[in-house]
Amino acid sequence: MFRHRPLHSLSTCIRKDILSEQGSQLRPFSHSTGAMKSHDWNYQDELFQFTRGRFLYNERKQFLQREVRFDMNKLAQIAVELLGAQRCEQIQKFPDGLFNKAYLFTMDDGQEIVGKVPNPNAGIAHYTTASEVATLDFVRNTLNIPAPRVLGWSSHSANNPVGVEYILMEKVAGVPLEPFWRVLKPVKKLEVFMKIFEYQKRLSGVVFPRIGSLYYASDLSTFDQAPPLVVKVNGEPLELSNFSIGPTVGQGWFSDGRETLGFQEGPWADVLEYRRAIASRELHCIRELHARKPMQMICGPKLYQPTSARKVKALELFQAWLPKLIPASQPELLEAYLWHNDLHAENILVNPEKPTEIMGIIDWQSTEIAPLFELRTAPSFLGYEGPAIDDKLEAPVLDKESVNSAEENARVIKQHNDSAIMTAWLRLLKKKDPKQYQAYRFQQTMPGTILHISQNIFEMGEAHLLSFLLQQQKQAGSGAPQLSISTEQARVIEEDAQLADKSFDLMSQIRDQMGDAWPDKGLVDHQQYQQAKEDLSLAKEDIATLLDLSNQEKMELERYWPFDQ
User: Where are the alpha helices (DSSP H) in 4-126?
Assistant: First the structure.
């Protein structure tokens, strides 16, 4: 228990993705389409509800945002007709996504097809599904990236018999890379990432003229007036007459209530226009919505305490600095690319008999066309969580001299191997696709960091944004925008940043101590729910003890605590 392990001495432990363990488990519902009403798929509540785990914050609301009701029998019948089968014998639900549900339909003749529907929290009606279908088509048929083949779809729930937007697609052979990646030898990991790099290089070879998301031209209301979409493929123009760029479907525009405010989601002609729109979005949210308590930090007495006024101040100062922060001297970083920005090991499907063979890349929902300097050119499947790797890209040295236990030895070896893999990836980028490497490097700079954290100030980050802007002004000299900040205000800004560091560090210690039971994105496995609640409750008591809080301050900590009691 936490009370027996003081927070100031908590050790870092290697975390596993507790939810990915369920990735290969399908929940079967084996009733045929001709079954009696008591066997009607529409009466199987678990098909429509979120059943993957439990939420540790605002659980009822989280479940409602991920429950979607529709006519499953009609969707099964459409699947039957697409495959030319007689009937559907079984429907199995894949583990719930946070923004969608997916099902495996098995026919009487053994054929299989995957069905996917968006959750209510997925984004704008019509656009989210329409963009995903067009994106799958483009990356599969234009770029030869192994994305699923779409067999049937509808982005207008009011105009189809199912009553929901849906996509029916081929079942991609293969299983998630995640469990294999943990145990693959470094040389085999290199084989995998060479193939992933090739796919990313195909994406980075296509420059789009605007920022937004990809659609079929016929799915946008303005397609009659829009000129043909012309992209540059490795520097040469290519007309994509069937496609067009429309509003973004990126989750940053729809999470935590943002979707209720009716923003203009693009497309945008240039980076400055686009980033001003993001800053305006965050300001509007701060003034109109109530932000949820951030789970990445602990706020309260003797820690950082966010205020709307501080958030507004941070964004107003950021807007003054914005033109100077954009990397105008590196025009290749301003160009727009379509990108899979969530390339974790669950979205890479491999041959289970030969896990270095990639069978498919899945989950292209919410894909954006965005400036290169924003994109994740070092994908998350690499699993690197260590310190920044400098531009020398020297091979890491394994230091086991201070190792005192088998557990610590395993940790040191893993950190070394992870660092070696990340270094090899960066060397590959630098040699084979320098612009991807420069995008990664820019993200490590102060301007890159400021641009990154400014996108989510409605939720958190204003203390560091103000501090970084202050540092940027000191370094830039007289030619830079001058922030209207007094000496006293500057002192308070630095104090706030230090308190925010403390708030992040405390939550990080709790996360490391809980290990697999940590509620990533607020979610835990069913079996871990009670234990996670108990651990978090004890952690809260430990924090109160560590900070020596009075009874009144303990009540204040309760008010800021982000998890359900």
Answer: 59-65, 72-83
Q: Spell out the residues 6+ positions from residue 552 whose beta carbon is closer than 8 angstroms to its own.
A: none
The pLDDT tens digits for 183-199 are 999 899 999 999 999 99
Q: Token digits for 135?
A: 């994106």
Q: pTM for this one? A: 0.91
Give which of 285, 232, 275 is closest to 255, Cα–Cα.
285
Q: What is the dihedral of CA 283, 285, 286, 287, to 10 degrees?
A: 90
Q: Which of 171, 192, 223 delimits the end of a domain?
A: 171
What CATH number is given to the structural domain containing 105?
Answer: 3.30.200.20
Instruction: Give the tokens for residue 112.
Output: 């299989």
Q: What CA–CA distance (Å, rounded) separates 44 from 197?
A: 42
**Domain finish residue from 138, 171, 204:** 171
**Residue 57: pLDDT above 60?**
yes
* Angle formed by the axes of helices 406-432 and 186-204, nearest 10°: 30
Residues 8 and 99 in one domain: no
Same domain, 46 and 162: yes
Can you give the residue range of the structural domain that contains 92?
A: 31-171
Tell me the range of 320-324, 396-400, 415-419 where mean pLDDT is highest.
320-324
